[in-house]
Amino acid sequence: MDTAQAVEAIKRRLSLKEVVSRYVALKPAGRGRWKGLCPFHQEKTPSFYVDEEKGLFHCFGCKAGGDLFAFVEKIEGLDFMGALERLAEEAGVEIPKGGAPAKRRELLDVLKLSQEYFLEGLKASLEAQEYLQRRGLSPESIARFGLGYAPAKGDGLLTHLTRHGISPEEGLKAGVLAEKDGRFYDRFRNRITFPIRDHLGRIVAFTGRALGDETPKYLNSPETPLFRKREVLFAYPEAKAKLRQGRAIVVEGLFDAIALHQMGFAEAVAVLGSGLSEEQARLLEMQEVREVYLAFDADEAGQRATLQSLDLSLARKFLFYAVRLPSKDPGDLLLLPEGPALFQKALEEALPEVEFRFQEATRGLDLTRPEHKRKVLEALTPRMLSPEPFDPVADRLKALVVERLGLSLRQLEDYLASLKRGRRPPPQPPKAEPKNRVLLLELDVMALLLSVPEERFAEWVHHTALHVWPPEGSLLSEFLELASREPRRDYLRQVLSRKEAGGILLERLMLVPSVDEPRFPEILEKTLARLREAYYLERRAKLKEELSRNPSMEILREIQELDQAIEAERRIYRKL
What we know:
Number of helices: 25
Family: Belongs to the DnaG primase family.
Catalytic activity: ssDNA + n NTP = ssDNA/pppN(pN)n-1 hybrid + (n-1) diphosphate
Strand content: 5-15%
Domain Toprim: 246-326
Largest sheet: 5 strands, antiparallel
Zinc finger (CHC2-type): 38-62
GO molecular function: DNA binding; DNA-directed RNA polymerase activity; zinc ion binding
């Protein structure tokens, strides 16, 4: 099987809509079509469409578009061969040997084998099982989240991997082995293991919780080509379905996330650091989350993490609430019969972002003292200096500052304006793609040709080449030349989507209606007539300029011939 055959086999086995829906919450938008918020730029109104019949996606806002492979390339930051490898593995399609780097797959294999070892370790350890029972976790939760145990033995996993043909160096790259003075050993020992899964549900790392007095209490895999903790949310794959209802509960601890799921709060996810990163917030945005309840630990560090999360520029897309926990962390509630009810009450009493910010800024201060008022104002200023003209949180915060600090709105606005004056102007938006009439008509022809069945494609390309004469160097000229050499629609889409006008071509492909085969010749002929007319009009405009500079009967006769040709083309597409 060559690469082209592998691509076709993958597309037959994998649904574009299903792959895209792992990243974007899609809603029906007509027969065989879905829409959602674009994952490639920030927007509030959906302009991102998936057409299953055509096998294309396109954003009418940022112009991103293409097929299944183009989507995976862009969303995962891969090249074509990396996307081919990723999708081939999922579809069970064999790709040509040497056709793609194997590093990512090898790392995934190492992590799968490590998980097998940890699961067996938990089955064999009564101590580890009893620990999980004392934490209140049910067998169903333990199985669902894949909790395991790394035995205290220092080379147990090393031996297990070696037995399966995995070298110590590969185990080191995957983050499950460590090395000191040239000696390899198990990174996780005598620890409960939590598999960390990415948004596709693949294990990309582990966290180990010490059973004894070992330090640190929690040990994470190092960052690898597969794993960056800023880009991953623990329990995200398990929470996806509930997140699409619009609410997320974000906690710090992995136990906390599992406990909340067990108590019925299946929209819970956990950060792997001290606060919510922009990459993690984008994962929530992809599921159309609107409300984010931050339930970090009730200690001072937890409160700082809450504030850190609220400072994100991306956070302006969410309504944030700070949950005041009745215990140190949500996991403690699992041991209480009334735990679910207590957490539900905490959610209902959660402070909106504005109130939370003001309370935190005024903690320990006396608002009757002018110097303390200034401290509060300075603490709240960054959030009030919003770049968005309609930011409800910034507006409400201003109103609260005016009300409780005794300032007039004019004084506050003057103060904020004085701070803004030193700022650089926002960057200019990217230039729009060229949109002249001839180019658009060429793209219409190309879109029509790319919409015909594969078995008729070469025939209609040949027909078009005989009935239209694009100028040398034009996009259509390049398309016809490429199509005559390599008459494969997928290949041409990939090549052309990277051109300057590629976004418009994909837009045209999404907009071109499904054409009944008997009517296709008529529709193509009308489109070619409009394009030939546009070529004639361009030539006529140039001749008229030349005629004004250098009057000539020869130029005049050519203009008259062009007028006749233009009228003939109009009769074709008007059916006169």
